[in-house]
Amino acid sequence: MLTTGLTWSRTPNAYAWLGGEISTTPQMALCRCGGSEIKPTCDGACASNGFTDRKDPKRVPDKRDRFEGVQLTVFDNRGICQHSGFCTGRLNTVFHTEGAFVTPSGGRMDDIIRAVRDCPSGALSFGVNGVEARDQVDWEHSRERVIEVTKDGPYRITGGIALADAQGEPVMRARGASLEHYALCRCGHSQNKPFCSGMHWYIDFKDPVPDSDTTPTLFEWAGGLPALTRMTRIFYEKHVPEDPLLAPLFANMSPDHPVRVARWLGEVFGGPKLYTEIYGGYDRMISQHLGKALTEEKRARWVELICLSAQEAALPSDAEFQAAFRSYIEWGSRIALENSQLGAKPPPHMPMPRWSWVCDATPGSRVSALAPSGAETAEAGVELPRPDEAVGFEQHVKPLFRERDRKSMKFAFDLWSYDDVRNNAQAILERVKAGTMPCDEAWPSTWVEVFDRWTQSGMSK
Hints:
The protein is 33% helix and 7% strand. With 461 residues, it is of the alpha+beta class.
């Protein structure tokens, strides 16, 4: 039921953007105004911040277009698009940001169908021989009832969860809209409430960021289970079937095999222990390779195509992630090759592998050659003391160190820690005077002078 919050009578599953489960109850309210301090739960802010769920009369019109192609027809309603970029970003030969939105003869049928099915707003559909195949687009009978709280974006609803207004009546839908999957506004600024219209991009809507000094896991950096599942689906649905080496090997895989592999990778990369809890852990994975007699040629092809799938699924392309990701793919595939040989006797009851960043190559551990200069990215909070003013760490010294400086030195000490900077003040002073710290550009002389004054005046906190 839809009022100022979002409630339901039959409890669905709910997940955060990384795929972690959110506790739900038969009756609970989720924030729709964007102002709650306890997102995604409503705290009543909508009652005092002027929130309204009226539609904007200037919204994109409710108009359904039909695009005929050689293999299939694509249907689209721009009026309910949430601008996730899943289609234009992943299949830009068919879906475009300029000109005609859809050119349905510009891609393979399976790629187009995958893009249409992945459309979170339900704006897209497809047809064969001119007849819409809505039952193939919607997975109501095979997809679980889920509310996904996306990162800095809308609620994505799947599984045919009914949507009703405050009076209990079904919410009116746009032409051709899916009843099985749709996206609901979470920022409070949609032009098409209660549905998302992509306004979260324009208002720069952000969820609260938890205070954490810890390096993100590979799982978090990759984008969690949604990203890993997107990759494994591309691999097993697109690349494996057309490969003469791998297609026979996976011809009898179960329908949920891509999900299983994504959960395995998620657990290995530091995410929730779903593979262990659902399927049985490392022993279960080993059992899938015993007696398969894999060859080096098959292993190498598997590595090649899973890395290609990661690229097509838009997993991070930075050097640090790719080093860690590819090192595991090489290591894991070679262990699978070894375990698959006839007569192999893998040690039983081994723990799940846990993979992390390679050789301290973590996000932020280096300055990219393509990054703006230090002067361009200096923190706006830098406040230089007056000549007669006492220099303090919190007010004057700490702001001189950017977050990237802090990350690059975390292996030695914390530049945002008073005790660490005080204990290493002389070494830091020598480096900033020499222009060797930070490593991307020397400090301005006025900053060096402030740090020097601090070291000579008692290094107050």
